Amino acid sequence: MNFLKTLMGSAVAILALTAGSGAQAGEIDLTSAIGASGMINGATYTTVDAQPTGTGYIDSFVRVRDANDSTVQGYNTTVAKTYQNDGAENFNHQITVGEIGFLDLNGPDTDGGVVMRFLLDINQTGANPLILLSEVQIFLSLTPNQDNEDPLANGELAHLADSAIVYQMDAGDLTNGALLNYDLNGGSGSGDMILDIPIEMFASAFLALGLDTEDLQNGAFLYLYSRFERNNDGYEEWTHFQGEGIGEPPCDPNVEDCGPNFIPEPNSMLLFGLGLLGSAIAVRRGRRWDRS
Ligand SMILES: [Ca+2]
Ligand SMILES: [Ca+2]
Ligand SMILES: [Ca+2]
Ligand SMILES: [Ca+2]
Predict the structure, then answer these.
(1) Ligand 1 centroid vs 137 CA: distance in angstroms?
(2) For residues 152 and 154, what is the distance between their CA atoms, to the nearest angstrom?
(3) Is residue 62 a contact partner of residue 209, using CB atoms and an 8 Å limit?
(4) Does pTM top 0.85 for this prediction?
(5) What distance in Å separates the CA atoms of residue 223 and residue 118, rounded to the nearest whole number?
(6) Residue closest to 40 by CA, chosen among 66, 22, 61, 63
(7) Cα(281) to centroid(ligand 3), Å
(8) Residues within 5 Å of ion ligand 2 by Cβ?
């Protein structure tokens, strides 16, 4: 199919939909209940239960922290301490569109619903559990692991080379934000909020970077920049749900596991390797066969 053409048509529809629904502006309050949700500039922010981790922790690709600063920011790169990203490369690194992939939230028989889904895990003190996610910028770039940390004026895009913007929370309204409550999901490593970015939003970035094949699109490096205010205590970190790359049927969470990646503990990793991995591969192969 002509993917880009489909995307552009859908993008126009989404823009019209967003404009017509009086898209929420300003700060959305997600502090009171699991399942609370709000939309900012076409992306959906939803608080979630702790994800079932077994014994593992989420396998983040960007982790931001500095216990002494109330405002922290960062994007995924292996260049340690770019802005306030954590120095650990295994939790701050390049990632591609194809490695994250897409989910189809309403299944293949219903139009739309195809998103890239991120999971945010926040860590605050019990005494001061609220934190404000005050900016999100998602870019595609041809160059991984950049290190520009120029000071950014409010609303200014991060200075990333060879890049095109996919999504900005603060586009059109600097007061946009999502207020979150650590106490809804006490503890670390299992997630507090999901962010859904519709696939249609990628179209203009693909075009701007000249990525006109599925392979090129899947190979584009994705940067997730975020900024937090009222920060205290431990780090804030992002991972993603596991979707399928462009050209594959998106993962359908109604019938299969598209959950976030976790880091299994060594003993569970062994069990996984001996048994579950084999059946998981069989299931995934079966799914592809079913749909081809
Ligand atoms: Ca669908
Ligand atoms: Ca948490
Ligand atoms: Ca903001
Ligand atoms: Ca924190």
Answers:
(1) 25
(2) 6
(3) no
(4) no
(5) 12
(6) 22
(7) 42
(8) 121, 185, 192
- Relative to the alpha carbon of 108, which ligand is closest? 1
* pLDDT of 261: 74
Per-residue pLDDT of the chain (292 residues; tens, 9 = 90+): 445 555 544 544 444 444 434 445 699 999 999 999 999 999 999 999 877 654 457 889 999 987 778 999 999 999 999 999 988 899 999 999 999 999 999 999 999 999 999 999 999 998 999 999 999 999 999 999 999 999 999 999 999 999 999 999 999 999 999 999 999 986 666 789 999 999 999 999 999 999 999 999 999 999 999 999 999 988 899 999 999 999 999 999 999 999 887 776 555 555 555 554 454 444 444 343 333 3
pLDDT for 189: 65
What sign does the dihedral 55-238-25-135 (CA atoms) show? positive
Instruction: Tell me which ligand sits closest to the C-alpha of residue 26.
Output: 3
Closest ligand to Cα 188: 2
* CA of 230 relative to ligand 3 center, distance in Å: 13
Which tokens belong to 95?
Answer: 């990632």
Query: Cβ(238)–Cβ(247) under 8 Å?
Result: no
Tokens of 54: 């077994």
Distance 232 CA to ligand 4 centre (A): 4
- How much distance in Å is there from the Cα of 176 to the middle of ligand 1? 28
State the burial class of residue 249 (Cβ atoms within 10 Å of its Cβ: 0-12, 13-18, 19+).
Answer: middle
- Closest ligand (CA of 137): 3
With b for 16 or more beta-carbon neighbours within 10 A and e for fewer, the 226-245 pattern comes to bbbbebbbbbbbbbbbbbbb
Residue by residue, DSSP assigns 226-246 as EEEES--SS-EEEEEB--B-T
